[in-house]
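Dear colleagues,

For the upcoming journal club I promised to circulate an example of a predicted protein-ligand complex. I picked one with protoporphyrin IX containing FE because it came up in last month's discussion. The inputs are reproduced below in full, followed by the predicted structure.
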Amino acid sequence: MTTSNPLAKFDIAPEDIDRLVAAFYARIRAHPTLGPVFARAIAAEDGPEWRAHERKIAAFWRNAIGIERGAYDGNPMRVHVANPDVHPGMFSTWLALFRETAEEVLAPHQARAIAALADKIGESMRYGVTQRGQVKGAPPVLR
Ligand code: HEM
């Protein structure tokens, strides 16, 4: 299916995003280091809280890709910087898992485009998380 929004960054349907988000967070839940971070933030596994999280994340992507501007109006940077369980070293793992899932679930051009967008957003979030609690002049803690 194609999107009708000519301003979108690339061609993807909301249903494709939903499939990607469901597959990705199923893997996140099972992941040895990332799973527990989400389990602490989202109370019940596979319960209504996870569905609410997935709905919010799907809206985030529709907004970020430009197929539905205004679908999401949160502040992910603030959420990740405020969560002491989120460490800079986790971003490469998250992004690799996201790319791998996108390649399995989406068409190749969609997977490439959404993974590149995630890399860009993830890199700036990683920077924000690295700056958290940074003592002026001291070397950053990158783990
Ligand atoms: C180190 C890697 C990451 C970890 C451990 C992580 C973990 C989390 C956790 C625990 C939450 C809160 C869940 C909730 O209560 O709903 C969250 C929310 C969120 N994450 Fe991440 N995340 C990571 C990377 C990313 C990246 C790279 C993106 C985007 C490309 C992203 C997008 C979001 C969004 C949009 C939310 C919802 C924020 C809101 O409440 O409005 N995350 N993340």
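Two points we might discuss: The chain has one domain: 14-131. The CA atoms of residues 39 and 45 lie 7 Å apart.

See you all on Thursday,
B. R.
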